[in-house]
Write a structure and sequence with these properties.
Layout lengths: L1 H6 L5 H11 L3 H5 L6 H23 L6 H6 L8 H4 L2 H8 L1
Amino acid sequence: MALDDCIKGRTNCVSNIKHLLKEYEFAHIFDNPHSVDVKKFTLEFKLKVIDCFKNEWLHSLESPVLKLYKKCKHVFGYENYLDVLPRSLRFTFVD
């Protein structure tokens, strides 16, 4: 039923998945789901999403507002200093 709604152009969870697959260049998987190695696809899709996110993050650093931040932060990743802060202060420093 959800697939039929998607084919009719309605927005639902299936159409959202189809959109994500298309956005990350995996549209062929929606059309041929039975020809997919699930473990391989899951790994490739995850890596593609992470890679795109990192690229978008790097591109966002071109903003003049983030000039100082760009000098301090060169690589996307978790900041270890957050482990030192008490949980109650983490949101204060991150926001």
